[in-house]
Amino acid sequence: MTSPASNAPPLLRMRGIEKTYPGVRALRGVDMELRAGEVLALVGENGAGKSTLIKILGGAVASDAGSIHVDGRPVQLRGPTAARRAGVSIIYQEFNLVPALTARENIFLGQEPSRFGWLPVSEEHRRSRELFKRIGVAIDPETPCRDLTVAQQQVVEIAKALSREAKVVVMDEPSAALSPRETRHLFAVIRELQAQGIGVIYISHRLNEVFEIADRVMVLRDGAHVGTRPIGELTRDRIIEMMVGRTLETEFPKQPAPLGPPRLVACGLRRGRAVRDVSFEVRRGEVLALTGLVGAGRTETARLIFAADRRDAGTVSLDGRPLSLRSPRDAIAAGICLLTEDRKSQGLVLGRSVQENFGLPNMNRFAPGGFLRLRREAAALDGYVDQMQIKLASRNQAAGTLSGGNQQKIVLAKWLERNAEVVIFDEPTRGIDVGAKYEIYLLINRLAAQGKAVLMISSELPEVLGMSDRILVMHEGRITGEISDVARATQEQIMELAVQ
Question: At what angle do helices 150-163 and 180-195 cross, to 10 degrees?
Answer without folding.
Answer: 10
